[in-house]
Amino acid sequence: MTKKVAVIFGGSSGTLADDPDLPLVKKTVSLLREFGIETEMHVMSAHRTPKEACAFAENARADGFGVIIAAAGKAAHLAGVLAAHTTLPVIGIPIKASVLEGMDALLSIVQMPRGIPVATMAIDGVENAAILAAQILSVCDENVACKLDAAKRNMTADVLQKDIELQEIGY
Question: Cα–Cα distance between 171 and 152 in angstroms, integer?
Answer without folding.
Answer: 26
